[in-house]
Amino acid sequence: MALSKTIASRLLRQFSKTLSVKNRNISWRIHDDDLTCRYECFFSREDIDGWDIRQGMNDLLGYDAVPEPPVIIAALHACRRVNDYAMTVRFLEAIKDRCGDKANEIYPYIVQEIAPTLCELGCDLPETLCYHKPELFLKSVFD
After folding, report:
1. How far is Cα 130 from Cα 134, in angstroms, rounded to an integer?
2. What angle do helix axes 50-62 and 85-99 make, rounded to 10 degrees?
3. Which of 36, 87, 90, 103 has an alpha carbon within 20 to 30 A of 132's alpha carbon?
4. pLDDT tens per residue across span 21-63
5. CATH number of the domain enclosing 98
6. Which InterPro entries match (predicted)?
């Protein structure tokens, strides 16, 4: 019994050393083409369900970048396959939010690129649904 404890503790120490050394030396660099291809393939899966789509969108929007139009189109098709219109609208809202300060430059380009897909799927932009303002929006009395 004592022998197995010593072996286990030695293996645990060696494993933890390996992890700590690898964590310091690994530099994660993901190229845009790899990321685009990976998420296009992910959203194009035929067996994808709503949970997987939400997980993929959450992971995708976690990067400090705006997704490319082919990825957005694949995600819109995935939403259509699971028949979740609300997820489509929320994803488009998140894309616009992800554009940040450059929304006036980047978002119109994205809308231009995905417009044929939106027409094909019968989806609307959040702006056409008046989701760009709160429902009970009132002008400030202090202005």
Report:
1. 8
2. 0
3. 36
4. 444 444 344 457 788 889 999 999 999 999 999 999 999 988 8
5. 1.25.40.40
6. Cyt_c_oxidase_su5A/6, Cyt_c_oxidase_su5A/6_sf
Can you tell me which residue has the tokens 């120490």?
13
- What would the 3-class secondary structure string for the chain be? CHHHHHHHHHHHHHHHHHHHHHHHHCCCCCCHHHHHHHHHHHHCCCCCCHHHHHHHHHHHHHCCCCCCHHHHHHHHHHHHHCCCHHHHHHHHHHHHHHHHHHHHHHHHHHHHHHHHHHHHHCCCCCCCCCCCCCCCCCCCCCC
Q: Which domain holds residue 38?
A: 32-121
Whether residue 96 lies inside any domain: the answer is yes
pLDDT, tens only, 109-138: 999 999 999 999 999 898 888 776 666 666
